Amino acid sequence: MYLSCNLFIILLAHFVHAEWNTKDFLKREHSLIKPYYGSGLDIPFWQFTGSTIITPNYIRLTDDAPSKRGSIWNLMPLNVRNWELQVHFKVHGNGKLFGDGFAIWYAKEPLIDGPVFGSKDYFQGLAVIVDTYSNHNGPHNHQHPYVSAMVNNGSLSYDHDRDGTHTQVAGCEARFRNFGFDTHLAIRYEKDVLTVSTDMENKAAWKQCFQVTGVRLPTGYHLGISATTGDLSDNHDIISLRLYELDLPDDPQPQEDRSNIIPSAKFFEPPRDHVEDPKPSSLSGIKIFFLMLLGSVAIVACVVLGIMFYQKQQEKSRKRFY
Ligand SMILES: *[C@@H]1O[C@H](CO)[C@@H](O)[C@H](O)[C@H]1NC(C)=O
Ligand SMILES: [Ca+2]
């Protein structure tokens, strides 16, 4: 009984994680998993700054108090071409209004304090920004909290007044605050395709937030995560970061040296106030086909009935006149 129950749990776990290649390799030196501390007083391979505190069960980047900034950065450069970072986090607080949010970094320069959710502006690399507070007063084209990605070669500034919308490559709305269950976010970077997914509905399943192609990032940058509060605040807690090197048997692993390329994205979203895309029809192709078929049959039937009716009328009128 015990054995079969165990087996069931293992099978269930497999089912839940079926989406992930089991050969993907967890890189311990780029991950942050409980217990955080090694043998000494340091977290091996990681360094934290500002308001960050380490507890046995979570890493708190900011507490629910105004004007805090905290970060934690991986000191080992990530020399992996295709990877996935899974972030287990918890954002919670008492305020009716809350902010500002956190950012997950793959950046050239780690540990630099700054205005972009606790880190450097004009950065080089990738930022996935989890923005809980809407700063702009103009018309909204999305709700907050909002998850977006920004790819920067060092020339762009993150504009808080517009919530970064004019420099983002893509984004999606997401709700995750004050939930009683676990919330996760995954950043997958595979063959220059960037996919951000969330697991925030207590379903133990990933839901795609957005996917963009043509994102070029060099190897050798640093992973990090930072958070900030302003007038409004929240607890920004990280429970774990897991970095997987992706196992891509079909990828010939081009020998291109990626260490010196400049971060770039082929596509940027058009600036704010763009017209929302029409909602995709919920009808599938086959349903549309059958509806059209039904429609044509109805039209043919109407025409036939019309002709018959017309002929009847003609006959009647003939009878009347002759
Ligand atoms: C950096 O990015 C900006 C904006 O996307 C672009 O105009 C510029 O040419 C880029 N510079 C380099 C050196 O790639
Ligand atoms: Ca904001």
Automatic annotation (TrEMBL):
Biological process (GO) annotations held by this record are: endoplasmic reticulum to Golgi vesicle-mediated transport
Which region is the signal sequence? 1-18
User: According to its UniProt record, where is this protein mainly located?
Assistant: membrane
Q: Which GO terms describe its cellular component?
A: COPII-coated ER to Golgi transport vesicle; endoplasmic reticulum membrane; endoplasmic reticulum-Golgi intermediate compartment; Golgi membrane
List the keywords (alphabetical): Disulfide bond, Glycoprotein, Golgi apparatus, Lectin, Membrane, Metal-binding, Signal, Transmembrane, Transmembrane helix
Give the L-type lectin-like domain ranges: 24-246
* Molecular-function GO terms, alphabetical: D-mannose binding; metal ion binding
- Iron: present as a keyword of the record? no
Subcellular localization, as worded in the UniProt entry: Endomembrane system; Golgi apparatus membrane
* Record carries keyword Oxidoreductase: no
What is the official name of this protein in its record? L-type lectin-like domain-containing protein
Topologically, how does it sit relative to the membrane? Answer: Single-pass type I membrane protein; Single-pass membrane protein
Q: Which InterPro entries match?
A: ConA-like_dom_sf (IPR013320), Intracellular_Lectin-GPT (IPR051136), Lectin_leg (IPR005052)
Q: Where are the transmembrane segments?
A: 288-310
**Native source organism of the sequence:** Exocentrus adspersus
